[in-house]
# Entry
Amino acid sequence: MTERTVTYPVELLDGLASVASSSLLRIAGAFREVLEPVVAHSALVIFTEDCTGRPRKKAGDPAIVEGVTIAELDAVRQRTPRGPVTPVTADAGPHADRPTSAEIAGAERPIAAWLADTGALLVLTDPQGPIDDRLVGALWEVVAAGIRQQVATAAPDYLRDSRAASSERAGAIAELTDAHATTLESILAVTRSRQTSPEDARTAVTEIASAAMVELRAVSDRDRQLAEEPVARAFARLREDLRPLARFGGPEVQFIEPPVDGRALPGEVAHAGRAIVRGTVLALVEQSSVGRVRVQWDCDGSNLLIGIRDDGPGELTVDTPSVQQLGARVAALRGSLDVQATPGWGSELHVTLPLDPPPAAQTRSDSAAAALTEREWSVAELAAGGARNRAIAETLTISENTVKFHIANVLRKLGVASRVELAAALAASR
# Structure
């Protein structure tokens, strides 16, 4: 009997492992490479509320990845059922209860969509040939869970990128809202005047303008929901995160609730706050004889204030390795960390995280700000964080040649010879 070797599942698992090890900046491109042999498509788009700074992750046809909007993806998500699908054959095509076409990048296109248990959406545009709906759905569940886990760890590079993207997007949304609202309000004022064209035309234009204003406000509100998280809800999610610790014999964790009417937290601050508390609690319980940990959140309108205290031996310092890791996360959001320990009485950590990013001119040194353009600065930040040219191109929706051009200019302007030296130069400027 002839021996038959099946390599496809092994290659698929290898590819999935590569996706799992990819950074959030590269994950869309890595997942597209895995799915391309399974189902041919023109572009892959991920939409996840876990990533507040960059909820869209895209790879593929530039015309699609540069034009797809949050409103379009949100509309697809509302039509897509969550979780695993009913088993179907590999040649059955997309599952019957999933959308097969949608407006993407301003045009109606064939799509295939899956919504993971985490709420993250995967969209493939212009899918070709038979689709093993169950297989792609299972792969997507794994990738979506990995995205959530990466966000939960709140790596410093992710936090810096997320905060910059949130600030950039908020400014763009504000400008877009003001510009369109002013235009549409002017149209309404003219068409409602008795001195305008006939009534039926005025009514029609009024309806169009009113509908456009409602849609625009909906986009703005949706973006705000992505970018912010009420402080009470963020704290409730933290309690859920820490519940398994007590369930499996860990110390008692006491929670001091924040004010329910406090200012909403920027998404990256909420994620970072939870990650910092989780990391701190784990660092505290590594000590001997810790029986109780108290966690307190508060918000003074400008900062998220975190206080964590234990009843352990009081041995933590800023030089403790686990505390140093927490310090990197705090520094990524330009916050402050203070550690106070009293031998025999316990340790206490105080963290302050600013809710608002500093003005752009304050996030870099004067010399770097003067030397680099906004686009060069974006490329430099990503390159210094370890992203390769392809990942930078996908993140900023530009070509790899353009990335090479910008990096050459950045190295020349800052007088450095490599990406390692670039990272050092940017770190020194912060």
Summary: DSSP finds 15 helices and twelve strands in the chain.
